[in-house]
Write a structure and sequence with these properties.
By secondary structure, the chain is of the alpha+beta class. About 35% of the residues lie in helices and about 20% in strands.
């Protein structure tokens, strides 16, 4: 009997290639920009009138978690091709890891409560932003012409129900919490709501015991892993301008002895005067998470 091993190998490789083709590709600014321009060009004049705002419109910086009516073009007013390009914009802003989670969260909200906005008309070399916003997910891709603005987001993440979407990040926090004693826990207390600034709360990484400082850096890097390499570069530059990772502060509140699916109820923040990444447990299977970086004052 002749061997058909070669045929099995080809079929297996073809199946793998098909599976890979269905997975979101790692994003970059070039693909995000092209997707934004393509999407904008597919909009009708009526759709553009709902989606387009001035580049400096303050609504670009709004942070709203609930599923509510918002300003902009709701996705139920888009056709299937246009909605597909919205997904490509999301993929352009994020890594494989981030896109898988953001697209999963996106499906939790009906199209009439998902919104698209352009702040300035997208064109190469000119400042514009494109934002998708809905319950537990706000992503913004911003171009600032030839000079960067030194800001990022705001990005809102989370989910309800969350299930295991953010479990890799939670495992890092739970492992970090195991190394904390009562005195250090008291020093780490601070604001708990997602999006709230640290103010003067928290302990700088450089003042933590070395193992805890390393654990905090792993937690930060896991959050940054949501974004494409180009987007992460913006955040890392801002963190460096603020004194680097060692100058960042950690805030932790509540019971972090177990995960949110097991009844754990905690919040954490990592930040500086300009940068913030946080996590708020809003109940079992319900999370609010924020990432943003502001301009230099």
């Amino acid at each position: 009997m002749k061997s058909f091993g070669w045929l099995s190998s080809i079929l297996a490789f073809s199946a793998l290639a098909w599976i890979v083709s269905l997975s979101p590709a790692a994003g970059d600014d070039d693909s995000a920009r092209k997707a934004a321009v393509a999407l904008f060009n597919l909009l009708s004049d009526e759709q553009k009138s709902l989606a387009l705002k001035p580049f400096d419109d303050k609504d670009k910086y709004s942070e709203i978690f609930p599923a509510t009516e918002r300003k902009g073009l709701s996705l139920d007013k888009l056709n299937a091709e246009q909605v597909a390009w919205v997904d490509k914009v999301i993929q352009g802003m994020t890594s494989d890891y981030g896109a898988q989670r953001c697209l999963a969260v996106a499906k939790q909200t009906p199209a009439n409560r998902r919104y698209l906005n352009f702040f300035g008309s997208p064109a190469d070399g000119k400042p514009f932003s494109v934002r998708v916003a809905q319950h537990h997910l706000t992503l913004i891709y911003a171009e600032f012409g030839t000079v960067g603005s030194g800001e990022f987001g705001p990005v809102l993440l989370g989910g309800n129900p969350v299930q295991q979407l953010w479990e890799e990040e939670e495992k890092l926090l739970l492992e970090l919490a195991k190394g904390l004693d009562k005195d250090l826990l008291a020093k780490l207390k601070g604001p708990g709501g997602s999006g709230q600034a640290l103010a003067k709360s928290g302990v700088a990484f450089k003042d933590l015991p070395q193992p805890l400082a390393m654990a905090a850096k792993k937690l930060l890097n896991k959050r940054l892993e949501v974004f494409s390499a180009n987007r992460r570069k913006i955040l890392l530059q801002i963190i460096e301008e603020e004194g680097g990772e060692d100058a960042l502060k950690l805030v932790l509140n509540g019971d972090a002895s177990k995960g949110h699916l097991e009844g754990g109820n905690y919040s954490w923040k990592i930040g500086s005067p300009r940068f913030l990444a946080d996590w708020q447990t809003s109940g079992k299977n319900h999370l609010h998470m924020t990432v943003r970086a502001s301009k230099k004052s």
